[in-house]
Amino acid sequence: MKKVFLIITLLWLILSISVVSAQNFNVPQIPQNIPKISVKLTTPVVLDAKSSKIIIIKKPPITFKPFDYTFFKIQKSQIITLSNGKKITSEDFLKEINEIEKTLNSYGYSLRDPEEEILIQRIVIPKQNFEIQRKIFKEIVPYTPETKEEPPKEFKNLNWERIWELPLGNEDFNVKVGTGLKLIGEEKKVNSNAFAYATVGLLGKSAELIKVETDIGAGENNTSQKGYTRVYILGEKKIEESFKTNVKYRDKSEYNVDWSFPITCPVGPFNVSGSFGLRGKIGVELGAVLDPLYCSGFINPYVDTSAYAEIGLNYKVASAGVGGELTLLKDKLNINGNLNLVLQNPVYNSYFQISAKGENELNALSGNLYFFVQIDYLVGKKKFKAEIYEWDGFKYSTKLFEYNSKEPAYKDKELWLSIKEIRGLTPYSARNEDLKIKSNSFRVIIDVGAQTYSKEFIDLDKNGILSSRDSIWNIKIPLSSQNPQIPIKITVQQIYSLGELKNLTATLDLSKDQRKEIDLFVDINSNTFTGTINGKIDEEKIAIGDTNYWGERYHQLRFILSSSLKFQPAPAK
């Protein structure tokens, strides 16, 4: 008797495990030997079958024809064991089956239909907009925030900065990753500042997966160093370190994460409830070195998260579950920067040694996920599926920046760069077709060696063209006679809207080769420059690219490099 009892118990355990596995087979598996952070939101998401986001695949209603005991070959008052192990009386079984059948009939379906699996509903995914995003953001490059002009002086502070942000998806399924690196050199100190973040949005709820902040600075001696680093996982501060002396710091941390919220969702005529969210792994490697007038740091965050759901409904003859596999965000970012002020004798030979590198690898919003209701009616099973998400996703491997330079700290010459006209993405194509483009602004970035200048200009006419009789922008560029040959890069980014897609960014194509930027190599001894365009100082030039994004005319930039700033005389009255 004991053996029989043990066998029955063992079979019951095996059956229970198989049922749980079948209904949660797509739940991401995470290691158990690392710390876990769990966030459970309490405000539910309730999806309405009448919402424009949900498409229910209905057919013409059919006349309800109830099932009886004979159809299933069961007797009244019989105890029935379903395939999932649940027990139910024949009266309750017939009541639930007929209730489900009547509801299905109103949608044009029946348990008598031959199909075993039916897609009855889907959430609208704007795949065309996603395709446009995938094309646009493949070309996105880091930018430099607007810079302030410094007053004239022999010693010139160094300011090198890049910010990169990538927003993908729509209001229901989205990710956003971003990073920045700023290197500042002054006469008596150097500073490195870096940040990174990643967020995920699901059905109107948002989770900040990771945020990393570092700020380190080094003065002239061992007691003038300072800095900090902070790491937040799902909003919880997990790492905080401060530095006040010379230091070599390194850390590596990893966490299991589980973030979810309550959800109620229709699956055709059924309502299922449970939890929906993400699980996975988040980690970071980071380090810093501080010595007199030298700072070096790196941040390498990584994220690997997938969607999961656990749902149910109030029927004994039916069960709810989840299928598919949806990668929300799998991202690996590497950022490092080094800055050193090397003092020389005589002091005007001093220079900054700068090194910066950034790269990112991303896989986001790729895969499929569906909720289902499966009905066990003895003579068969029928599965009704509600597609929550289905698309092949965004995949990028991007070199954000790589820069190495030796920059003179003292400047004794100057050059002026005047931007005269910008022509970018316009509302109409070369054939005068309406492209549904609305221009918002232009961001002009000038890289002179390791020094960056940036300014944003509003496009008041919204037509993708900025022009001035004098100049849109005059930039004074300090130079050193010790370095008579200097690289200058001109990048123009346009912020615009395309139909429903807002705040898109395009790097204008201003070159005839694979590059988009204007790359010049200026020789201040011969007053000439070569590169994307060849010319002489004080000679106006027009750079025109050979590609477009949406059929607009080729982009162009009119500019002049001058030995001194020239003003146009006022028009005669």
Overall form: elongated
Task: Count the DSSP helices.
Answer: 4
Rg of Cα set: 32 Å
Poorly predicted sequence stretches spanning 5 or more consecutive residues: 1-26, 568-573
Helical percent range?
under 10%
In round numbers, the mean pLDDT is 89
Number of strands: 31
**How far do the termini sit from each other?**
115 Å
Fraction of residues in β-strands = over 45%
For this structure, the quaternary state is single chain
Q: Tell me the major beta sheet.
A: 11 strands, mixed
* Sheet/helix structural class: mainly beta
Describe the structure.
The protein is mainly beta and 573 residues long. Among the domains are: 155-263 and 275-314 and 325-370 and 393-409, no CATH class; 411-573, Immunoglobulin-like (Sandwich). Helices cover 9% and strands 55% of the residues. The chain has helices at 2-23, 69-72, 90-106, 127-137; strands at 36-40, 45-46, 54-56, 79-81, 87-89, 117-123, 158-169, 173-185, 190-202, 205-218, 226-233, 236-243, 247-267, 270-291, 294-312, 318-342, 351-376, 381-391, 394-408, 413-423, 437-448, 451-458, 465-467, 473-479, 485-498, 501-507, 518-523, 528-531, 535-536, 540-544, 556-562. Strand 11 (226-233) and strand 12 form a beta hairpin. The chain is elongated. 34% of the residues are buried.
